[in-house]
C-alpha cells in the first residue's frame, strides 16, 4: 500500500540501486506472507526494469515498466491496490512525471553521496518535493539517504553535511548504503544480494555485510512510514 518514491535531480545519486535493494529486501520479507512489491520504473533509461526482467528477480516483485508522465499516476493507482509496498524509481530531472509521483508519495527517499555538491542537489530535490506538496495540498514526508559511503564510518564531510541537514530541519536516514560490489553485481547477474555467491571468504563476508545493510535500510524505511502514519493520526485527532 504505501508508496515510496526515489527522487534526486542528480543522475548517479543511487536512486535505482536503493530502489532495487529495498524492493529485494521487502520481497524477501513478504514472500512467506504472500505480499507483493510493486516496482515502477519511470526513468526512460529503464535500469530497474532491466534488472527486474533478468532471471532471479523475486517472483513477488511486480514490475511496471516504461511509466511516463501520462501513465505514472495510473500505474501508482493500480500498484497501490495490489501491492504491500509500491516503489517508484524516477529520472534525475524535475519532470511532470517526477512531480506527479512525488505528489502521491508516503515517503520520498533522496539518495545523496556525502559531498557538498551532492548535498546541493539534494536541496534542489527538496524544493521540487515542496512544490509537489503545494500542488497536492498536503505534507509529503521525505528523508535524505547517504549512499555509496566508502566505509561504515561517516567521513568528516559527511558529519558536516549531516549537521547542516539537521540544522535545516531536514530528516536524514540513520543508516546509509555502503559502496559495495554486491550492490553493483545484482545489475549484471540479476537476482538479489542474497542470491549472490562469493568465490572466496572475503567476497562472502562482503555479500553478508551488503545483505545486512539492506535489512537495516528496510527496517528504517518501515519505521519512518509508521512514524508518519502515527503523526497523521495524531494530527487528525487534534
Ligand atoms: N551503494 C552502492 N554500492 C556500489 N555501487 C553503487 C551504490 N549505489 C550506486 N552505485 C553505482 O553508482 C552508479 C549510479 O547508481 P544508480 O543507482 O544507477 O543511480 P541513479 O539511479 O540515481 O542514476 C551505478 O553504476 C551503481 O552501480
Ligand atoms: Mg536510475
From TrEMBL:
Pfam families per record: VirC1
Annotated InterPro entries: DNA_Partitioning_ATPase (IPR050678), P-loop_NTPase (IPR027417), VirC1 (IPR009744)
Coiled-coil intervals: 193-238
Keywords of the record: Coiled coil
CDD domains in the cross-refs: ParAB_family
The organism's place on the tree of life at top rank: Bacteria
Gene3D superfamilies the UniProt entry points to: P-loop containing nucleotide triphosphate hydrolases
Protein name as catalogued: Chromosome (Plasmid) partitioning protein ParA
Amino acid at each position: 500500500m504505501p508508496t515510496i518514491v526515489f527522487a534526486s535531480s542528480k543522475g548517479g545519486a543511487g536512486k535505482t540501486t536503493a530502489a532495487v535493494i529495498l524492493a529485494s529486501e521487502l520481497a524477501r520479507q513478504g514472500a512467506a506472507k504472500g505480499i507483493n512489491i510493486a516496482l515502477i520504473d519511470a526513468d526512460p533509461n529503464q535500469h530497474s526494469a532491466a534488472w527486474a526482467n533478468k532471471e532471479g528477480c523475486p517472483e513477488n516483485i511486480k514490475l511496471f515498466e516504461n511509466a511516463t508522465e501520462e501513465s505514472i499516476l495510473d500505474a501508482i493507482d493500480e500498484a497501490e491496490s495490489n501491492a504491500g509496498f509500491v516503489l517508484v524509481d524516477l529520472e534525475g530531472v524535475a519532470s511532470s512525471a517526477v512531480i506527479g509521483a512525488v505528489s502521491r508519495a508516503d515517503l520520498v527517499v533522496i539518495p545523496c553521496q556525502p559531498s557538498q555538491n551532492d548535498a546541493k542537489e539534494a536541496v534542489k530535490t527538496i524544493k521540487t518535493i515542496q512544490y509537489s506538496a503545494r500542488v497536492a495540498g498536503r505534507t509529503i514526508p521525505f528523508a535524505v539517504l547517504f549512499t555509496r559511503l566508502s566505509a561504515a564510518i561517516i567521513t568528516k564531510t559527511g558529519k558536516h553535511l549531516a549537521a547542516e541537514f539537521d540544522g535545516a530541519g531536514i530528516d536524514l536516514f540513520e543508516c546509509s548504503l555502503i559502496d559495495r560490489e554486491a550492490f553493483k553485481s545484482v545489475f549484471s547477474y540479476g537476482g538479489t544480494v542474497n542470491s549472490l555467491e562469493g568465490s572466496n571468504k572475503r567476497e562472502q563476508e562482503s555479500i553478508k555485510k551488503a545483505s545486512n545493510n539492506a535489512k537495516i535500510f528496510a527496517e528504517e524505511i518501515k519505521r519512518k512510514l509508521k512514524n508518519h502514519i502515527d503523526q497523521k493520526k495524531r494530527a487528525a485527532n487534534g
